[in-house]
Specification:
Number of helices: 17
CATH topology of the largest domain: Rna Polymerase Sigma Factor, Chain: A
Radius of gyration: 20 Å
CATH class of the largest domain: Mainly Alpha
Order of helices and strands: EHEHEHEHEHEHEHEHHHHEEEHHHHHH
CATH superfamily of the largest domain: RNA polymerase sigma factor, region 2, helix turn helix motif
Structural class: alpha/beta
Strand content: 5-15%
Distance between the termini: 54 Å
Helix content: 40-55%
Number of strands: 11
Amino acid sequence: MKRIAILGSTGSIGVQTLDVVRRNPDLFRVEALAAGSRLDLLEGQVREFQPSVVSVADEAIARELKQRLADHSPSLWIGHSAEGLERAATLPIVSLVVGGLPGSAGLLPTFAAVNAGKDVALATKEVLVMAGSLFMETVRRKGVKLLPVDSEQSAIFQCLEGNQHAAIRRLILTASGGPFREMAPEEMAQVTVERTLEHPRWKMGPKVTVDSATLMNKGFEVIEARWLFDVSASRIEVVIHPQSICHSMVEFEDGSILAQLGATDMRIPISYALAYPERIDSGVAAIDFAHLGSLTFRKPDWDRFPLLRAAYSALDDETGASSIILNAADEVAVELFLSRRIGFMDIPRIVLDALNSVPPARVTNLEEIKQFHSDVVTRVQRNAVA
């Protein structure tokens, strides 16, 4: 039985991970859960899966959870903040940590898990966006398995199984194009938060759903793929695939192309990462290809979605600072949009302005990366509301 910890248990990835666990009770045991403030959902998860460690966002939430679980096991450890996250990520009995925390919040606990010798099923792409070189170096040094959970990265990972790395010609990342792929720029300036969160294919959290609409999410995946598979940005291509059935492809030097296809359900890559190298019941229904009809592909519109181009440009900066600026500025801009303080088209404006105006810095360790990211967030927040 594999003992696991789930960071971000009440988010989209965490909930779907627990569904896979629920379907395979003989294969997995949940030992630790880390979440934010969604106490109703977290309380139910604790009662159902009986973890030994739980972490929440802050002390007040931890106190309330303890009160709610007063009738529960007295051996349950409930913590909060950075200390609680680290404990959940490094629990000795755990062999696999599912990294599903949104944004930069996943950086430190994911590093802690790797440094503790845990295999990591990674859904938090920002870890590689902010610290790709350092993170992959740490993974190699500790000798742990890094198993991608993003559907696109999982697809590439699966296509590369049994194939020599040197034979790669291209990685082809597919993108749904989001809800506004056919919309004129002047219309996009008027879209609401509610409409932006109505993704045509995937069920995701609000941050990644907005990033999907701006194609920033695909840009992050380009950066993620560059580090995960040690392939230069020039050999990573993005194509718009509205049906979201082909999750990504690998083209080899002989001209062969392998693709991974499946339903638009994150339980497929989650189950593959949990059970690797085996395949287990994910709970996903089969695709009726005759009913589906056709699969289409086309080039992205770089002018309408400039953040995709910005991600490629960020990879030209060998210091890694530009990728950190990109992530920090996007976090601020998306938060402002979700709180209805800016419009949709202000998101790329704020991010591109930060890339052009924030002085780069050479960051060589985790503390410097964390501090630089925090400094950029502060600067962008100040400028965005000025």
